[in-house]
Amino acid sequence: MTLPHLPNLPKLPEPSRKAPLHLVWDWNGTVLNDFEIILRSTNDSFGDHGVPPITADQYRTQIKMPIRAFYTDILGHAPTDEEWEAMDATFHDYYVAYERQARLSDGLPDLFRAWAGRGHSQSLLSMYHDDKLVPAVAHHGIAHHFALVQGTKQPRPARKAEHLADHLRRLRVDPATVVLIGDSPDDAAAAYSVGARVVLYAGGFAATSSLVATGAPIADTLAAAVAMIEELAAEG
Questions:
Q1: Per the count of CB atoms within 10 A, which of 56, 138, 204, 208 is most buried?
Q2: Looking at residue 15, what is its pLDDT?
């Protein structure tokens, strides 16, 4: 039996093995360049409670999560529930008064647009109170770049790990396709806990030495951090 002649059809492209990545951005110290405001709010709060001020270097080398443990180190004793609640409330009162003075970190929002333009998705996750975070993000005109903007609600989680797990469940994304970009060891621990990847930004709150100890890749700028993540995307 003679088969009919078939025309030369164009060769179909090979299916792409490069899955889109989902980038989870941290807010304070990463997207928002607010270290000086955080430090000022901390010291103003300390002053109201008879605690000596700390320097930027002291803050960066001693900051840890949960924040209450950081206060324990500064005070030299574990704060009582009453002390902690009073100091935490005072800090947030000062921060809210100052936060509109903060600006987005260098490279933003251009990096958001570039990331989306390459076919990837992104969201924003913060340990900041949700009712304060959402309007702050809207104030900077960047909410539309994110599939989800999520802060914390009461009772607040002590660490970011459980918060990130909830965030990814809401987004319905595979943690294997997720990269978190943040500025603290707690960000790295959160990513590792859910099976996601992480790149840490050295321009935020934590000392570089504490970032190195996590074993995560570190970038001096957000542009460099995104470039590292794009390499992960290229690897598939």
A1: 204
A2: 33
